[in-house]
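Summary of Year 1 activities. Much of the first year was spent building the evaluation harness for sequence design. The harness presents a backbone, in tokenized form, and records the residue chosen at every position. We chose the following record to illustrate the format because it has been used consistently in internal testing since the harness was completed.
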């Protein structure tokens, strides 16, 4: 049995989360950026994307679309990394998963998860800071409950949650194999 965790990352946080997911798995697991993928000869494929400005990375969506036939009928797990998962807005993170899953071909989706990520405004590009500021102004105007001034920008990654997700993926995968 072998698995591939494939992902893209904007600032490197998703790379670490992928490593932590693999720590929870006891099967042979390769971790590769989507730009490095040249084979889909894996029993299980795990696809991950960070969420930025309310959606998964375009490069991950483009990867899924471009490799539709290669992913068809595969056993797949998906995840998104989202700083909002560690906030009071975490429940909305399921929508980010749905945005990613809608591009998947007919496959055997065995697990999905939104995992806490990292967003430090002072560590992102000036362009991304300005984009985020525009988004926050819009959200402030749309909702009286949302106050962007109260947001604590931090590294919310959770190693245990990622490892637990890795264990869940492997357990679900083994159950499928044992039922065949």
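For this record, the design step produced the sequence shown next.
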């Amino acid at each position: 049995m072998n698995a591939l965790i494939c992902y893209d990352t904007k600032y490197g946080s998703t790379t670490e989360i992928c490593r932590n997911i693999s720590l929870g798995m006891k099967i042979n697991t390769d971790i590769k950026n989507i730009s490095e993928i040249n084979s889909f000869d894996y029993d299980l494929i795990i696809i991950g994307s960070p969420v930025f400005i309310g959606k998964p990375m375009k490069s991950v969506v483009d990867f899924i679309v471009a490799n539709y036939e290669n992913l068809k009928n595969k056993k797949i797990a998906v995840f998104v990394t989202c700083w909002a998962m560690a906030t009071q807005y975490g429940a909305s993170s399921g929508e980010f998963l749905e945005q990613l899953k809608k591009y998947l071909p007919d496959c055997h989706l065995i697990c999905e998860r939104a995992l806490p990520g990292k967003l430090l405004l002072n560590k992102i590009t000036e362009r991304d800071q300005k984009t985020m500021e525009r988004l926050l102004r819009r959200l402030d105007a749309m909702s009286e409950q949302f106050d962007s001034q109260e947001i604590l920008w931090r590294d919310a990654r959770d190693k245990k949650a990622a490892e637990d997700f890795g264990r869940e993926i492997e357990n679900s995968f083994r159950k499928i194999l044992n039922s065949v």
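Residues 120-153 form one domain. Quantitative recovery figures across the full test set are reported in Table 2.
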